[in-house]
Amino acid sequence: MDVKAVECDFSFSRFERAYFRDAIFSNCKFTGARFEDCNFRGVTFVQCDFKYADFSGCLIDAKQVVSNLPYEPNIRSEALRNLRANATSVGDYKIQGMLVLQEIQASYDHYCRVLKGADTYYQKKYPTFVSKLKAGGHILAYHVSRFVWGHGEKPQNILFSIVVFLLSMSLINFWSVLPQTSWASAGAGINVFQYYFVVVARYLYIGLFITVLYRKISYR
Questions:
Q1: What angle do CA 67, 96, 68 make, to 5 degrees?
Q2: Which CATH number fits domain 1-68: 2.160.20.80, 2.60.20.10, 2.40.110.10, 2.40.50.140?
Q3: Is residue 82 within 8 Å of residue 102, measured between CB atoms?
Q4: 197-215: per-residue pLDDT in tens?
Q5: Do 50 and 27 touch, CB atoms closer than 8 A?
Q6: Helix (H) or strand (E) holding 44
Q7: Are 72 and 100 in contact (CB under 8 A)?
Q8: Tell me: the pLDDT tens digits for 102-120?
Q9: Helix, strand or coil for residue 26?
Q10: What is the domain partition of the chain in residue ranges?
Q11: What's the pTM?
């Protein structure tokens, strides 16, 4: 018979080589709990609190834990980083792509809250213009990374972005040869700039594609 724990408080507990197979935890608190070399195969977590929990060498369905992670993006990001390190320690490479994207999204949400001053915590911790400017830089980098290569986890984004890039360069070239005075005077310079830009981009995209391909193969 499966074990079921309802509204139990395991906060700041330490579990070593515990066997939780097929157990069900509902509305339980694991705040600050530490798990070492535990087996969570088949475990179900329902509305549990994993704030500041730490996993090391555990066999676990990371998706189950992710669905129960705290909403606060800065705490969530740290928890996802820990789950990714745990997955590496047990050789669970297939789940790492999902954890990476979740971690990046949590960091993005964090910087958005910094920029907006979402609540009193962010207003007090990041009150200056410089901190908001840095947050804006991270947000811009997030969108560029997502568009160009899907944060290294989506090869199809590379194909899409390079098609958009080449079409844009073709459009610039088309405009540069139009019989307009403003373009005619700058046409030669634009063509030279376009040539070098395409050459650099070609090697850049090849490098990005190889990186993404290596990641996908290593996860298997």
A1: 10
A2: 2.160.20.80
A3: no
A4: 666 666 666 666 666 655 5
A5: no
A6: strand 44-46
A7: no
A8: 888 888 888 888 888 878 8
A9: strand
A10: 1-68, 71-151, 154-219
A11: 0.64
